[in-house]
Amino acid sequence: MMKQIFGRRKASKTAGKECGGRTFNQLLSGSGFADLSGQLPILSSTGDIYGNGNRTGFQDSRINDTLFSSNFRLLPSFKDVPNTEKQNLLIKKLNMCCTLFDFEDAAKNIKEKEIKTLMLLEIDEYVRTANAKFPEIIVEAITKMISVNLFRTLISPPREKKVLQAFDLEEDEPLMDPAWPHLYHVYELLLTFVQSPENDAKLAKKYIDHSFILRLLELFDSEDARERDRLKTVLHRIYGKFMVYRPFIRKAINNIFYQFIYETEKHNGIAELLEIFGSIINGFALPLKEEHKLFLGRTLIPLHKPRCTSMYHRQLSYCITQFVEKDCKLADTVIRGLIKYWPITNSTKEVLFLGELEEVLDATQPAEFQKCMVPLSHQIAHCLNSSHFQVAERVLFFWNNIHFENFVKQNSKVILPIILPALEKNINGHWNQVVQSLSLNVRKLLSDRDPQMFTECLRKYEEDKGREKEFKLKQELAWKRLDEIASAKVTSGEAVLVSPTLPRQPSFL
């Protein structure tokens, strides 16, 4: 059986000749090394055998070990061979690097792993120092080797039930892929290859195509933050080099966001993808295209909805602010969108929203502020009366912002009647002393800014408070009367009829 395996391909005497017009597989089969579908196995961490990236039948591990020991050997360095042989040697090294190892077992194939790492470093140096355009056969070989090593099915370990409820991964230990030290060198090679001036973009497009980009995007769901960080850099470079792919990349990332928002609410790479988009938005030309405005309204703003917003909020806030700085007319859309998705019971998330709101207000013009100041003032008043002291404290700090304070001063006739009752309620009844003290400071600031308006609003507040007190007293008397009637007739078994019906009254505060 060993003879059958090793007898299929023999070393060719023409291995030292130049590639000429031969194809990639012809070169491999005649170079003294097996092609990707030939004698060298590609072992996954599950023990399955791969050839050309496709799963085949499982073979005896003893045969696999024999194959490794007899074929996976260190090849000469590039500096030790003539220039005419370097391209053939590169193909051989790339072919050998298509072999995958089980990194779950650190004691397995130690020598072979070291050889592969050394070859990846040599290939990276070769690509980095190249001084001539890469021929198609090299471009194909490099992208094929990278695809074999990187593109794999990501398997997430089971999480505790609390994660399914809160998706709070910040408290969990970061997961480290045992294969990362190896994958790192593959990513470095991909980055070097994409950035190389000798890599012709028109030729590389045949192999770094839509399918290649989509599979790269799938890897953003990796549990290992180190891999996601490298992917972020690689995808950014691809976006910069291959201009024709820019709309496709934006659309593909958008689809990932849609699936995350409306279906799964689970993805490990949302922060990294938003970071890429932050850089893309920064380069948008003015006036903004309708496509970009739709992305803001249909994707970025709804990204505030998922429960795990805190995992990527910093990057999301940056993207949102970039849009407002690019086009100030979008401020109204953004502020109303924040109010629409404002958290109801998640105080931590509310604090994040308030921080983002303040950043957006810093980039908002007076005309745009006036469009949304009424719903915004009601939301601020609601936060002022929050029973969670951090939420109330954070919104009171808005008055330290000169930009926001000027908005309030310029529109005090509209804002003050909405804000003042909330401040008075804090001063008279909030449980936290710091919130009470800050509310007093803001109250004094408003009073000093416009004494006449403040006095008028305070008088109206006192009137409304008196009417509400009177209404509550009438309500209590009505319920007391109902109770007396019911008690008097409880022994008779008669139905209790009450007339007239009390009218429903709105709250005054």
Automatic annotation (TrEMBL):
Offer one example of a GO biological process linked to this entry.
signal transduction
Principal place of residence: cytoplasm
Database matches in Pfam families: B56
* Keyword Transmembrane among UniProt keywords: no
Recorded hits in InterPro entries, A to Z, give: ARM-like (IPR011989), ARM-type_fold (IPR016024), PP2A_B56 (IPR002554)
- Keywords tagged on the record: Cytoplasm
Q: According to its record, what are the GO cellular component terms?
A: cytoplasm; protein phosphatase type 2A complex
Entry's Gene Ontology molecular function annotations: protein phosphatase activator activity
Query: What compartments host this protein?
Result: Cytoplasm
Q: Which family does it belong to?
A: Belongs to the phosphatase 2A regulatory subunit B56 family.
Q: What does this protein do?
A: The B regulatory subunit might modulate substrate selectivity and catalytic activity, and also might direct the localization of the catalytic enzyme to a particular subcellular compartment.
Q: What is this protein called?
A: Serine/threonine protein phosphatase 2A regulatory subunit
